[in-house]
Design brief:
Blueprint lengths: L1 E7 L6 E7 L9 E6 L8 H10 L1 H13 L10 E5 L7 E6 L10 H18 L4 E4 L11 H15 L8 E6 L2 H17 L4 E7 L1
Parallel strand pairs: 2-7, 3-5, 3-6, 6-7
Antiparallel strand pairs: 1-2, 1-8, 4-5
Helix pairs in contact: 3-4, 4-5
The structure holds adenosine-5'-diphosphate.
């Protein structure tokens, strides 16, 4: 397995995108993103893994967020930060991706907003690094190719505006998603002379 590192905007802000395969709960970035559901009360997939690994502090803070900020639940495309409990990351940024209904019900806009809002919240907290799972591509059934193009393009655009966030890691669970993200990284590096692509490790 390998890790890819893509440096974007080499001559200006100098941000880095990293692609790796594995469990996002083990990431040591300043924040990890949770692909939550709007209840913020936990669930399956990456949501369940984050609450299990981080412990009860995360759910306690999610309950406070529901009470104070989002009594109706966190809408798709929004993001909110909590503590990370026992996780190596310092913060969990919870976002809600769209459920795929064929693509004509605002799903792309909501997915773009989810990535943007997570990066905005991380930047507001003054964080340097953040790790994303492949939001919406599990039980929410967003097609992986389309979701990946949005994840990478939105992140590259948003990194042009962030003051603090400089490193974004995409953590994929399966090898098919890894290949799809790797193709996106290659597409960017071949179309933009300001990008540089490196293969870091091969096991
Ligand atoms: P959604 O409801 O947004 O589709 P899921 O949790 O069902 O969220 O899936 C989102 C993606 O996260 C899927 O590609 C899934 O394979 C992946 N995933 C599940 N568990 C983990 C984990 N522990 N670390 C990283 N990615 C994970």
């Amino acid at each position: 397995m390998s890790t890819l590192r893509l440096t974007t905007d080499r001559n200006k802000t100098g941000s880095t995108l990293v692609l790796t395969q594995g469990d996002i709960t083990r990431q040591t970035t300043d924040a990890i993103v949770n692909a939550a559901n709007s209840s913020l009360m936990g669930g399956g997939g990456v949501d369940g893994a984050i609450h299990r690994a981080g412990g009860p502090v995360i759910l306690e803070e999610c309950k406070k967020v529901r009470k104070t900020q989002y009594p109706q639940g966190l809408p798709a495309g929004q993001a909110v930060a909590t503590a990370a409990g026992r996780l190596p990351a310092k913060h969990v940024i919870h976002t809600v991706g769209p459920i795929w209904h064929g693509g004509l019900r605002g799903e792309p806009e909501q997915l773009i907003s989810a990535y943007r809002e997570c990066l905005r919240v991380a930047d507001e907290l003054g964080l340097h690094s953040i790790a994303f799972p492949a939001i919406s591509t599990g039980v929410y059934r967003y097609p992986v190719e389309r979701a990946t193009a949005i994840a990478v393009d939105t992140t590259v655009q948003q990194l042009k505006t962030t003051k603090h966030v400089r490193e974004v890691t995409f953590v994929v669970f399966d090898s098919h998603s890894f290949q799809v993200y790797a193709r996106e990284f290659e597409r960017l590096s071949s179309s933009d002379p300001d990008c540089g692509l490196e293969k870091l490790t091969t096991q």
